[in-house]
What we know:
Elements: E1 2-6, H1 13-24, E2 30-35, H2 42-45, E3 52-57, E4 60-65, H3 75-79, E5 85-88, E6 90-93, H4 103-107, E7 113-118, E8 121-127, E9 133-139, H5 146-164, E10 168-175, H6 179-185, E11 190-195, H7 199-215, E12 219-224, H8 230-242, E13 246-251, H9 256-262, H10 267-270, H11 275-288
Parallel strand pairs: 1-10, 1-11, 2-9, 2-10, 11-12, 12-13
Antiparallel strand pairs: 3-8, 4-7, 5-6, 8-9
Amino acid sequence: xxxxxxxxxxxxxxxxxxxxxxxxxxxxxxxxxxxxxxxxxxxxxxxxxxxxxxxxxxxxxxxxxxxxxxxxxxxxxxxxxxxxxxxxxxxxxxxxxxxxxxxxxxxxxxxxxxxxxxxxxxxxxxxxxxxxxxxxxxxxxxxxxxxxxxxxxxxxxxxxxxxxxxxxxxxxxxxxxxxxxxxxxxxxxxxxxxxxxxxxxxxxxxxxxxxxxxxxxxxxxxxxxxxxxxxxxxxxxxxxxxxxxxxxxxxxxxxxxxxxxxxxxxxxxxxxxxxxxxxxxxxxxxxxx
Length: 289
């Protein structure tokens, strides 16, 4: 199980994942999962406009008040850290602010508050045009629990991989180091960090490397658009060496990456000349795990 991660958004993580998946699938049986449930777009890189077998899931709860029992004492409002409860005679819950922590239920002595599961996400699958299955999902607007949704996507991906006898599950993580990223990384065999030669990307990469160290996950580094700032590229490589992080390759800036996205195709399909770069990275990755 390989997670493609990036501390900073916009480094080209999903673009890299799509092309890497196409190249890996030529030599190994793979399955791909989009674990960015807040802003899923990996499917578009494969030309998939909608998933199939979509179902709603429940991975979070919301507080619900029974007005027949509520006395309007205000204890629930006092303990709510998210300002989700207001008492106007009776307690009222703003479902868009409620994080489902359950503090209000514990504070309510009359027992007027209960936690109820809500359908907070959709999950589905799709057969890509390149011979492998993709699992994906999206968090509903205003809902919480992205980390739990990612865990569910991974569970489905693992079950499918057993049925399809896939050798590699490639996970396209969200950017950053938050809950969905931790859910993507936990239990993975390897993490491929994608970065770019900018000060912000280097700063975020350092935070990501700290996370990988705490989770004890071996990793490699891929520098995208490396030729836009060679001095900073050298600095990033030096940082990787100090952290015992393998350098898997450099990808040059090329306008065809943007053209490929606009035409809903992986870069290696849109421009076959880019295959040489990604084939080397795919071979290096397959031999390193």
